[in-house]
Structure formats: C-alpha cells, structure tokens
Design goal:
14-stranded mixed beta sheet; five-stranded parallel beta sheet; about 5% helix
C-alpha cells in the first residue's frame, strides 16, 4: 500500500504537496531509519500503514505523526504447514516510541526478542485492535492515553503493563503464553513465569476477558459488563493462574455470562 505523508505547515516551504512514499520506502529498514526520522519531524498524517522490516535496527520512533489510517506492524508470512500467518523475527528492534499519535486502526507487534520499551504517549483510540505477542521479561508497555480499542492482546513475560485510562477493552487477552484451541479447557500451565500485576483502573466494559500466567494481583474496580456491544449477549471472564494465590474482587461487575477460574486462587 502506498503511504502518503502530509507535511505540517511551516515544513517543506518550497513544496506544499504531500510527500508520497512508494511500497519499498514504506517498509522501514535500518538503512532508511534516519531518513524517515528526519521526514517524520514534519509529518502529521500517514494514509496507509507502516511495516517495520525484519532488519530494522535500534529504536523506532515517530515524533509529530498524529494519525495513521492503517496501522503499525512487524512482518508476517503465511505458513503452508499451519495454514496461518507467522511472525518474521525482528531481532534488533529495541524500542517503539510514538509520542503524538492519537489514532490508528491497529498495532501488531511480534517476533521482537530485544524489544525493551513500547510507548504510545498520546494514542487514545485503536479502532482495529492492539496485538503485542512474544514480549520478553523486562519489556515495559505503556499506553497512558488509550481509552478505547477493539481488541487488546498482550502475550509474553512482560511484567510491567500500563493502561491507566482504558475504559473499553474489546476482546482482551493478557497472557504469559499465546492462547491455543486447548485453552477452552482452562488447563493450568505450571511453568514458572515471572509474577505480574493486572491493573485496569478505569476499565468499564469488554467483549471478553482471558487472563493467564503468574498473576499476583488483579485490579479492575470499574468493570461492570462483559457483553456484546449491541444486544444482551453476555460473554466470559476466564482466569487461569499458577504461582501467587490470586484474590479476585470485581465489585461492580453485574453483566457477564460466566466467570471461570483455575489454578492458585485465593479468595
């Protein structure tokens, strides 16, 4: 897909036309990272998507971009064995820092063993969802302004998640390992995972919630409904944890089909 970069006023005074990147330029590599970083200082909108290439090295950052009509992703490839797409590793990507983006359709990041920091400082809405898979221990995930997303999938050994304003979470999966078809049976994974807290202080509603790992605390005090957006079809809250005894308290939850819990449950 062609990426159209619209320059803000005061930038590129000799040429007011949008800057257009072709398909090759829109896939960021380590060779063009500096070039893109300089251009993005005057960029406000990207009409299309950004695919971070497998050989990207170091910090990925956007400065003044406020809107990406497509999304931000790492590469994937179709597997004839599984019949699904699988991530292509991006081994040298160390951080993703996006300061002023307030809207994008989706974020899909996976295969990133060196990633230590994910920060979207102003993102309020991700209409198509956020998917962060295979994160390593110590990776900080920080979305301080996010209020609404269609889906939220975070999987890996990360122990530091921050979504302080998220009110509508869509289909939520916060897990130590990616979910499989066997997860319908709530089998408890007894592998020692790093302990982590699940804290969504402003979450009010979701389409479904699945939590898995060594969960040492759970805080969702405002959660009131787990149901379809339209109609009265209520859905599930599923928790499976092993490690710290987990106390479950959901004082405002009144609309849910069922709550299932397995593992080291406290009270």
């Amino acid at each position: 897909m062609t990426v159209i970069v619209v320059l803000s006023s005061g930038e590129n005074d000799d040429d007011d036309a949008p800057r257009v990147c072709d398909d090759d330029e829109s896939e960021l590599t380590s060779l063009c990272a500096l070039c893109f970083g300089l251009h993005s200082a005057g960029c406000t909108e990207i009409e299309g998507s950004i695919n971070i290439a497998a050989n990207y090295t170091g910090r990925f950052y956007l400065t003044n971009v406020t809107t990406i009509f497509g999304g931000i992703s790492t590469p994937r490839i179709y597997s004839g064995v599984t019949g699904e797409t699988e991530p292509i590793p991006v081994p040298l990507l160390t951080s993703i820092q996006v300061a002023r983006l307030n809207y994008t359709q989706s974020i899909d990041i996976s295969g990133v063993p060196s990633l230590a920091y994910i920060w979207f400082g102003s993102l309020a809405v991700a209409s198509g969802g956020i998917r962060l898979v295979g994160l390593q221990e110590g990776c900080l995930v920080d979305f301080p302004a996010l209020t609404t997303t269609r889906d939220l999938v975070v999987s890996g050994n990360t122990t530091d998640l921050s979504f302080p304003l998220l009110a509508s979470g869509g289909n939520m999966e916060i897990t130590a390992t990616p979910l499989t078809s066997n997860d319908d049976y709530l089998l408890v994974d007894r592998v020692d995972h790093p302990a982590f807290d699940i804290n969504f202080p402003e979450l009010q509603n979701a389409l479904s919630i699945y939590l898995q790992g060594n969960i040492q605390s759970l805080n969702m005090p405002q959660l009131s409904a787990i149901k379809e957006e339209l109609g009265e079809y209520y859905r599930h809250l599923r928790i499976r944890t092993y490690g710290h005894p987990l106390n479950i308290g959901l004082p405002n939850l009144s609309k849910v089909h069922s709550i299932s819990a397995a593992g080291t449950i406290g009270s």
